[in-house]
Design goal:
Elements lengths: L3 E5 L5 E5 L13 E6 L2 E6 L5 E6 L6 E5 L20
Antiparallel strand pairs: 1-2, 1-5, 3-4, 5-6
Length: about 90
């Protein structure tokens, strides 16, 4: 069983994945969401930039960074699990 990795964006939306045998996992951060005002559901696109993302896993040093999203893209980040997390 791999490590559970938690990813939280700047709006508090949480995504989780479990690492595979090579220590990798993938999550998707969505840019669209449904809001409901006065009972009317509306599909909205997130337009606030920059986005701030925190990636963490037990026993690893967390990684927090910001990026600006203008369209769909793929980004790869690595956690440092060889050094104990800061207390």
């Amino acid at each position: 069983m791999g490590k559970t990795v938690n990813v939280v964006d700047s709006h508090g939306r949480d995504a989780k994945c479990v690492t595979d045998e090579s220590g990798k996992c993938s999550v998707f951060l969505v840019q669209t969401y449904v809001s409901s005002e006065a009972g009317n559901a509306t599909l909205r696109k997130e337009t606030r930039n920059p986005q701030k993302v925190t990636i963490s896993a037990d026993g690893c040093r967390s990684l927090t960074y910001e990026f600006e999203s203008k369209s769909a893209f793929e980004e790869r980040k690595s956690l440092d699990c060889s050094v104990p997390p800061r207390q």
